[in-house]
Structure formats: C-alpha cells, structure tokens
Specification:
It is a single chain. The protein is mainly α. It is built from nine helices and no strands. Helix 3 packs antiparallel against helix 5 and helix 6 crosses helix 7.
Length: about 200
C-alpha cells in the first residue's frame, strides 16, 4: 500500500479526531496508525500517567480534590490527536516544498532513464524522455504542451486559425480597431491574473 503524503495524513488525522469526539469506538491500532513514533510514545506516557492517578485515587472526585486531572483513554487520545494536527499543519509549507522536490526528482529520473535507454539504441533521447514524462502524467522537460495529439485535432486547429485570418482580412478599419482594443484588454487581464 502506498504511503500517505503529508496532506492526506492531515486529512485522515482530522477525520479520526472527529470519530473520537463523536464517541465512535476505534481499535488501538487504528488510533496509532496515523501517529509517528514520538506521538505514540506521548500517547502511551499520558495514559500511563492517568493509570497511576487511577491507582492512587479511586474516584474522579478524589483526584480532582488533590488538583489532578482525571481523563479517560478517549480524552488522552483526543489531546494527542489535536497536538498531532497542530504540528502537521505547522509544517505545511515544508511538506509542500518536499513534495515538489520529490516530484522534480522523480521527473528527472524518469526523463534520464528513458533518455539514456534511447541513446543507447541510437534513438532521439529527448523525444523518448519527454514521451516517458507524458506517460507518467508529468510535464515535458522542453515545456511544450501538446495536449491535442490526433491528426484530426491538429487539422481542426489549423482550420480555426485559417478562419480567424480570413475574418480579419474581411474586417473594416473600425472592426480591426475594436478587435485590437479587445486583444489588448485580454492581454492586460492575463498579465493581471499572473500577478
């Protein structure tokens, strides 16, 4: 089973916390599955502390009279989960940077494996590398977006370009001016959206 990324883990931690707060019965292994080793150790330490309080004070009222906090296992788990979620959300930027780096490394590895395999068999390495990246649903190294692949799609796009040119040639001076103003406006909007 593939491991969860940071954001999937945070999402599942929040879901598990909701289950705990709603009173749903969960197995101990389900509780510990999303926690790291330090968080599991903290959970066990807090529960051991609560068990010591329960041995020395037989009732919750006696524990509270001595200034101790009496918690159930559910309360301890909820407390640990809240801390785990807060820690995870504090690391969102670092996790995003790590994921981006891992994706770039994966893309480079895929490209280079295909490149060297193709050059070893006297084929174009760049084409093979870019094809391998597209098969892996990653962006090509040369940055070219060839989203329409079929011959029919290319022909349709060429026909549309030809029609646009013919329409431009048959426009009056005022219509051309209006078209130019509209294109400038769209260009400025695109530039504004990029910021």
């Amino acid at each position: 089973m593939p491991s969860l990324d940071h954001f999937q883990t945070v999402e599942r931690l929040e879901k598990r916390l909701q289950q705990l707060e709603s009173g749903e019965a969960l197995e101990a292994r389900d509780i510990k599955a999303l926690l790291n080793d330090a968080q599991v150790a903290e959970l066990e330490a807090l529960w051991t502390e609560q068990q010591a309080i329960r041995k020395s004070h037989k009732t919750q009222a006696k524990a509270e009279a001595d200034g101790l906090i009496w918690k159930t296992i559910r309360d301890v788990r909820i407390e640990v989960y809240k801390k785990a979620i807060a820690d995870a959300k504090g690391n969102n930027l670092e996790a995003l940077i790590d994921e981006q780096h891992a994706s770039e490394v994966r893309g480079a590895r895929i490209f280079l494996d295909a490149y060297f395999e193709a050059t070893a068999s006297d084929k174009d390495g760049h084409t093979a590398g870019n094809n391998a990246l597209r098969r892996a649903h990653l962006q090509r190294m040369d940055g070219v977006d060839r989203s329409y692949k079929s011959k029919r799609d290319r022909e349709v796009h060429e026909m549309e370009d030809d029609l646009r040119e013919r329409i431009k040639q048959n426009m009056s001076a005022e219509e051309l001016k209006q078209l130019e103003i509209m294109e400038e406006h769209e260009k400025s909007l695109r530039k504004h959206h990029k910021r």
